[in-house]
Amino acid sequence: MLDHTDLLIIEELSKNSRITMKELGEKVHLTGQATAARVAKLEDSGVIEGYTIKINQEKLGYVIHAMINIITQSTYHEPFLSYIQSQKEYVINNYKISGDSCYLLECKFPSNEVLDEFLVGLSKHVNYKLSIVIKK
Questions:
Q1: Is the pLDDT of residue 106 over 90?
Q2: What is the number of structural domains in the chain?
Q3: pTM for this model (two decimals)
Q4: CA 8 to mean position of chain CA atoms
Q5: Same domain for 64 and 32?
Q6: What strands lie across the sheet with 103-109, from one edge to the other?
């Protein structure tokens, strides 16, 4: 069971996973050593699964951020999943979901032309609804 201090540690690490244990300890009112022990316990128990970075996709040239609801035409999803795997440069996340659609793709594209090519290929396997992110 997580206590208040564990939750504070998780919150601070979510904001900045590169923070030193000493700085983190100061924020949660523990010594650096005690904080490191708590973090290790959270890692060992699987609460903290890993650390990651946030990437600015626009600075990498991906100016279009799209959310695509996928409606499959059959219960055999392998052709769709294979297509998505072949296009992983553009797929940020592929969520299997419940509701009106079967999957939700979060994608990035460098241009409308590349987006169109992706959608033409996608339409060979599934139906879709496209939404473009205007602002985060």
A1: yes
A2: 2
A3: 0.79
A4: 22
A5: no
A6: 91-96, 103-109, 64-72, 126-132
